[in-house]
Amino acid sequence: MRFSVKDAKFFKSCVDAIVSLVDEGSFVATKEGLHLRTMDPSQIAMVDFRLPATALDKLDVDEKSSATLNLVDFSKILSRSRAGESLEIVLDEKDAKLQLTFTGSSKRVFKMPLLDSSTAMPKEPNVPFDAQVKIQGGALKSMLQDAGLLSSHVIFDVSEHQFNLEAKGDAGDVKTETMKDSDSLAALDVKKPSRSMYPFDYLNNITKGCPDDAAVNVHLKSDAPIKITYPIGDAQLTYYLAPRVENE
Amino acid sequence: MRFSVKDAKFFKSCVDAIVSLVDEGSFVATKEGLHLRTMDPSQIAMVDFRLPATALDKLDVDEKSSATLNLVDFSKILSRSRAGESLEIVLDEKDAKLQLTFTGSSKRVFKMPLLDSSTAMPKEPNVPFDAQVKIQGGALKSMLQDAGLLSSHVIFDVSEHQFNLEAKGDAGDVKTETMKDSDSLAALDVKKPSRSMYPFDYLNNITKGCPDDAAVNVHLKSDAPIKITYPIGDAQLTYYLAPRVENE
Amino acid sequence: MRFSVKDAKFFKSCVDAIVSLVDEGSFVATKEGLHLRTMDPSQIAMVDFRLPATALDKLDVDEKSSATLNLVDFSKILSRSRAGESLEIVLDEKDAKLQLTFTGSSKRVFKMPLLDSSTAMPKEPNVPFDAQVKIQGGALKSMLQDAGLLSSHVIFDVSEHQFNLEAKGDAGDVKTETMKDSDSLAALDVKKPSRSMYPFDYLNNITKGCPDDAAVNVHLKSDAPIKITYPIGDAQLTYYLAPRVENE
């Protein structure tokens, strides 16, 4: 596996959207591009990341090649990229290292150890969702912050004409109501009204990497996992998060 | 009690000027406006806050109504206000809740529990002050920071032509001298020279909410409480702080 | 000793470049200017600071006068300087105090206690260096951050055409290669290839005060102390740091 990215900062923002949920993961390179899919350690959330070959400056790979990394360290190294530098990433399978070369006024070569790939790539859940909400990233993140102020759990509630977020805690309750014709909603497709509760911390981590102007796709079904999808440039991030059954 | 504010951020800055000194308090609404007066838990400082009805967008109240709140939680919720949103606050006495409704591209309703009003409103101290200093908020805060660098206590010293702040500590001493004709002094009216010491932490909290360009009114008398008054927009904040008898 | 500085913020940045390495030190004033030279508490690093009389607004001194100070407190007081204020520093030997007077819209007088001058001024090491690198401050600091990400120790390696920084740690390795003709190198004079390892924390503290656009002079010799010199305005900072013998 050997690939180059024109914009190291873009690649870092992709890795950060993954590392906010999981500490390690396997990047799989094929002729189609890069792919990573992994469960978080507590097994209640999954992240799926795809970057097509067309978004890469160069991609050399024989069939299929994978590299399992400490993503926290990977993100730290990527954070050292400077403006105007190109980045080449090469898998050195013999030495079990990933080599990152930043080239600018000086040449900087980082090598990080590969981890053992302990687990097979998990399957994507197959949930027959009842509702879909298309909403601006910034609006969704702001609603989640409202809710996170008051509770560790957030209720998503959709009906034909309305998308609500709710949270209840000792310091107070909050309900955010967004009507179907609101500016921040691009679409609200509801086959069946749905209501489900999810942990705030996970929702916060999942949406942390989401650009404010990105179109976020939220798929819902009562007491079922939530699916959240958004793009970062040409990359596509998809998350699943298990519900917490509401007992009030 | 039901009132609306045009500018939720302004209302938050008022609440922050209160919460820097006390964690809970009772807002009393009458036809004249809002009023809060309370002692800090250690009983050495008092804050009095008044917002006239004219500064509110709307105020519905029968005679007199009061709501006792956790001001820390209240400030947190107010901090969620977004640009261009209006805020309506309604007291729901039946459910013992205060309801805050932010209306913008979505509608957000926060409810927070009322606390028991444990204490009667304290009386305002009646001190026959000997001196009055009118000084810019920014200048006063900067002088206090100078003093707080070196000591936990600050001495205010005024004479006919001069306003001094002093502090003495192990790491050094500081004396800030401002002459009557200085740009940062709007007035210096001294019936009798006065000198008194106050705890820095309280002075710092009291002035935290003071806008840099606000005209602060300081009333002094030797070894008596200090009275500090400043406006935030149309709101008026007044503080009293007990002296510490100087023993050097 | 009595001297004035036009720009208190410049003087603070000099003191900060010293205080990042040592907590106390003696300023010696002569007709030539100010001088401070001291070892850090662990005795593995030395800082030498010189500010010529021409860089001061005024300097009154009889032959030689010295003031030993807690530099942390000195820096804190200097940090209270405001834009447009002048600063006069006077040694009050009778009371064993240093007096700092900031004059602007108010007059602020800080007094800090002198410390006992416990030690004689150390001698400057006399190392027959084999190589000299002239590099931009910003570039050197950035390379050091790359290295500090992965290890507590940094290897400097120079050969005729190349200046390398290396670090090896559990999370990965890094090698920064700068060729002689790079924009960030002003000069590379190598009598003999040299390679030596130094603790990152010290290098970080030594370069903390270095302006990004300053020309830094690095003198090297294998397994010998490193000498790092840079100007802050008219002041000259020189540091020595003992090597750590590389055992890999």
Topology (SSEs and partners):
Three copies of one chain form a homotrimer.
Chain A: E1 2-5, H1 8-19, E2 24-30, E3 33-39, E4 45-52, E5 58-60, E6 64-70, H2 71-78, E7 86-92, E8 97-103, E9 107-113, E10 131-136, H3 137-148, E11 153-159, E12 162-169, E13 172-179, E14 185-190, E15 194-199, H4 200-208, E16 215-220, E17 226-232, E18 235-241
Antiparallel strand pairs in A: 1-5, 1-7, 2-3, 2-6, 3-4, 4-18, 7-8, 8-9, 10-14, 10-16, 11-12, 11-15, 12-13, 16-17, 17-18
Helix pairs in contact in A: 1-2, 3-4
Structural features, described:
3 copies of one chain form a homotrimer. In chain A, the strands form 3 sheets. In chain A, strands 6-2-3-4-18-17-16-10-14 form a 9-stranded antiparallel sheet. The first copy, chain A, has 248 residues and is an alpha+beta fold. The radius of gyration of chain A is 20 Å and the shape is elongated. The first copy, chain A, has 2 domains: 2-113, Proliferating Cell Nuclear Antigen; 131-241, Box (Proliferating Cell Nuclear Antigen). In chain A, helix 1 (8-19) packs antiparallel against helix 2 and helix 3 (137-148) packs antiparallel against helix 4. The termini of chain A are far apart. Chain A has helices at 8-19, 71-78, 137-148, 200-208, and strands spanning 2-5, 24-30, 33-39, 45-52, 58-60, 64-70, 86-92, 97-103, 107-113, 131-136, 153-159, 162-169, 172-179, 185-190, 194-199, 215-220, 226-232, 235-241. Chains in contact: A-B, A-C, B-C. The A-C interface holds A 70, 73, 76-77, 80, 82, 105-113 and C 139, 142-143, 145-146, 149-150, 171-179, 182-184. Strand 13 of chain B pairs antiparallel with strand 9 of chain C, so a sheet runs across the interface.
